[in-house]
Design goal:
This protein has 141 residues and is mostly helical. It has a domain of 71 residues: Helix Hairpins (Orthogonal Bundle), CATH 1.10.287. Helix 3 runs antiparallel to helix 4 and helix 4 packs antiparallel against helix 5. The N and C termini lie far apart (84 Å).
Length: 141
């Protein structure tokens, strides 16, 4: 048997930890809140689609609240619109990371961006279908 030990087995690799993960408790919650606000500001400044969808959400929320519907139906109409914003923010994050890694054309980068776009499309389709299903009986009894 060979007495030479494999250094890879002995050495335990510590996971890389972000400096931002060191916060705990209330400080972490407050930091997360302010990071979220920065994210909203950045999305508003840099993402045209986010601005368009935010206008859609505001208008849709006002309309949903004014319609003669039960509370759960109003929640559904508003909830699917908020889901569109959530998916758009995730899509924008994916696009930012892809662009950060490399601006040159790459099939994997294209796939990542196309997947994000498809997710936004699905969320918009779900929102449209939900609005149609909820509002149809209201206008076509």
């Amino acid at each position: 048997m060979n007495n030479i030990e494999d250094p890879a087995i002995e050495t335990e690799i510590a996971p890389a930890v972000s400096e931002f993960k060191s916060k705990s408790g209330l400080k972490r919650i407050l930091s997360a809140f302010f990071y979220s606000l920065e994210g909203f500001r950045a999305a508003w400044r840099m993402e045209h689609a986010f601005r368009q969808e935010l206008v859609l959400v505001v208008c849709g929320t006002i309309i949903a609240l004014l319609l003669p519907l039960i509370g759960l139906e109003k929640l559904m109409l508003i909830g699917v619109l908020v889901l569109v914003l959530i998916v758009e923010l995730i899509n924008s994050a994916v696009e930012a990371v892809v662009d950060r890694v490399s601006l040159e054309r790459n099939p994997l980068s294209k796939n990542a961006k196309d997947f994000g776009s498809a997710a936004v499309f699905l969320s918009l389709s779900l929102a449209g279908a939900t609005w149609i299903v909820v509002l149809y009986p209201l206008f076509f009894k």
